[in-house]
Fold this protein.
Amino acid sequence: MAKSVLSADSLKEAGNVAFASKKFYDAIESYTRALDKKPSDTMIATLLSNRAAAFLNLNDYPKALEDCNMALEIDPGRDKALFRRAQAYESMGESAKAFSDLKQILHRDPTNRSVVAA
C-alpha cells in the first residue's frame, strides 16, 4: 500500500539506488513506476534516459533505443540520451547511426570525455 504514495522523485531515487547496485530489473521497475506518476516533461526525459541505461546493461538494445528516442522527442538536446542511443545503435550493428549521434554531442560539447573515448 505504501508503494502507491511514493512520488516520482522518490521512485527515481529508488531506481538510481538499484542501478548503482547493479539491480537493473529493479531500476527499470522503479523508473517505470515513476513514469506512471505523470511527472513533468523534464522528469520524463530523465526517467526514460535512466531506464535506457538499465536496458543497455541488460543487453536489451531495442528497448534502450526506444526509451532514448522518446527522451529525445521531449528534449532533443539531452546528450545522455543521445549517447545511450549511440551505444544501443553500436550494439545493434548500426555504426553509422551511432557515429552520427556521437558527432552531434561533440558538436555541442567537444570536450565530452565519454564521447571522445567512444
